[in-house]
Write a structure and sequence with these properties.
CATH architecture: Up-down Bundle
Largest sheet: none
Strand content: under 5%
Distance between the termini: 58 Å
Radius of gyration: 18 Å
Shape: elongated
Order of helices and strands: HHHHHH
Helix content: over 70%
Number of helices: 6
Number of strands: 0
CATH superfamily: Ferritin, core subunit, four-helix bundle
CATH class: Mainly Alpha
């Protein structure tokens, strides 16, 4: 009975560490991409959104690192195949030529996919945090997940503003 309890605790610790490392890896990669995208985007609604996302991502990454260290789970260098593939899609969309509707749409779709991945990872982390054992860690993770949800909403709002006159089917078939 005690062995199963210890095994569950170890498995929870491993899953939390993996989620923290994955979040850290994804935010670091996204920050590198957003830095370049902000420089190339000029002015306009896309540039404003990218700048705001970059600033908030810096804050989230800083808070994630601090909370993780405070609770004995400091992020360590790692890779994540899924996040790496999503970040590569954003990179290629950003490098796909002049800023037209197709490129902007590809960028938004890629960024939304990365944000959804981050939201799923945050949810997985929160599911692995026992509220009775680590209540402050759980509260901080939930607050950071909420900030990530706001980032995703900002992309949806931007997409609606940019493509408001186009039908969804027209955009999907392009």
């Amino acid at each position: 009975m005690v062995d199963k309890h210890i095994q569950r605790l170890r498995e929870g610790h491993r899953l939390r560490r993996n989620a923290i490392n994955e979040l850290h890896f994804t935010y670091k990669g996204l920050q590198r991409l957003l830095n370049g995208m902000v420089k190339r985007s000029g002015d306009g609604p896309l540039a404003e959104t990218l700048r705001a996302q970059l600033m908030q991502d810096r804050s989230v990454l800083h808070d994630l690192s601090n909370v993780a260290m405070d609770h004995g789970h400091p992020p360590i260098p790692s890779t994540c195949v899924e996040a790496d593939a999503l970040l590569a899609e954003v990179y290629h969309a950003d490098r796909s030529g002049a800023m037209g509707q197709a490129r902007m749409d590809a960028l938004l779709q890629g960024l939304k996919a990365v944000r959804m991945h981050l939201l799923r990872t945050w949810s997985g982390l929160i599911d692995q945090v026992p509220g009775d054992v680590l209540p402050r860690f759980r509260e901080a993770a939930d607050r950071l997940r909420t900030m990530e949800a706001q980032q995703h909403r900002a992309l949806l709002d931007l997409e609606a503003r940019i493509f408001q006159g186009e039908a969804v089917l027209d955009r999907l078939s392009a």
